Amino acid sequence: MAQKTKIEEEFVHLARMALSERTQDVQMFLSRIVRRRSTDKKLCESLIELLRENPTRSTPLRRDISAAMPTDSDTRFHLLRYEEFPHIPFEPIYSEQIQTTLNLLVEEREKIETLMKAGLEPTRTVLFTGPPGVGKTLGSRWIARALGCPLMILDLAAVMSSYLGRTGTNLRHVLEYAKSCNCVLLLDELDAIAKRRDDTGEIGELKRLVTVLLQQLDDWPSSRLLIAATNHADLLDPAIWRRFEQQIFFDFPKASSVRSFLEKLFEHPTQKTKKWIDILSTALAGSSYSDIEREVTLAKRAAVLNEQPLDQHLPALIASDRLSHMTRQKRIAIASQLAESGLVSQRKAQKITGVARDTIRHHLKMAQ
Q1: CB atoms within 10 A of CB 367
Q2: Interval 157-185: pLDDT, tens
């Protein structure tokens, strides 16, 4: 009886995928059946022959977007932002562990048929967590670009309808649409729609959104990649965490990553600028990429508007208030590095870092 129930469940699941036109998922499902029922030789041979003759063996990454994008029924705003060619202003700089994971996600999609033949599926859902400005959205764009497919981003402003009863409908329409498209789907700011259901400050409709999202994640096809990102992982409902096959934490960049990032931001650096990069890579370690880019851009603008060398505006990037979170020893090391490099005088180094000149002189003397 239990065996019969299992077969019935598999049949219903197969029918659901077929009716949803999820051809690639049907192929994977049949491949798994072949592996599990290897003792039923006749059935396996028939299924293998069907898989070999299947005329739609192209990967789902080659499908076109044909249906109109879903819109809110009241505002007529599109519920998704569509980036046909994801824009990457600069190549992301990640730790070796994160970059390896992102590469593997891409490789799984590129070799999806190899996985299918082994009865395996690629990763369906990934959760990016970490503070703002550390490369979560950029990572999603990088994956979409590497796969050669568009990126679709859930537009929370449009999804959150003024008629709360329709918000869940909007969310369902977005996810159902993305399942049928050749794209990578990004649910940015996931915490806005997936907060803990035990949060007494949230109204019932927003809590029901979590239920809608859980149902959609459970039914998410392996032929599509869904990425969610949040700056506030602690706000997510625990059940949401369990629906994601992989969780990747993006931390603030270390000094070596900051150095590589600065080298990309400063085009054709002078000798002085290169010295500044050495110092800034230490001073700005722990800052987000977006903050670093914004500060460098402000310095560039000021230099152009005042018709001055860029080097004259770089000390502002390491003002004493920025270094206040550092230990005294690190601030002394930066002040001494400034003075020793010849970029500024000891008096200027004191003004920038807040470290006394006597301390700077003593540290330089000890280093000789």
Answers
A1: 9
A2: 667 765 556 777 888 888 888 888 889 99
Measured distance CA(278)–CA(262) in Å, rounded: 9
Contact present, 133 and 291 (Cβ < 8 Å) = yes
Roughly what angle, to the nearest 10 degrees, separates helices 328-341 and 357-367?
A: 80
Q: Is 64 exposed, middle or buried (0-12, 13-18, 19+ CB in 10 A)?
A: exposed
Q: Which helix (H) or strand (E) holds 115?
A: helix 112-117
Q: How far is CA 186 from CA 35, 143, 154, 219, 227, in A?
A: 33, 11, 6, 17, 5
Burial 65-103 (b: 16+ CB within 10 A, else e): beeebbebeeeeeebbeebeebeeeeebbbeeebeebbe
What is the residue type of 69?
M
Other C-beta atoms closer than 10 Å to the C-beta of 299 total 21
Which regions in the chain score pLDDT beneath 70?
A: 1-6, 17, 19-25, 27-28, 31-32, 34-41, 44-45, 47-67, 72, 74, 157-158, 161-165, 196-206, 320-321, 368
Q: Name, in order, each residue with C-beta under 8 angstroms of 247's C-beta and a sequence gap of 6 or more.
A: 126, 127, 129, 241
What are the beta bridge partners of residue 225? 184
Record the pTM: 0.77
- Cα–Cα distance for residue pair 187/174, rounded to 1 Å: 10
Q: What is the DSSP letter of 186?
A: E
Cβ 126 vs Cβ 139: under 8 Å: no
The confidence score (pLDDT) of residue 61 equals 42
Q: Tell me the C-alpha distance between 183 and 226, whole Å.
A: 9
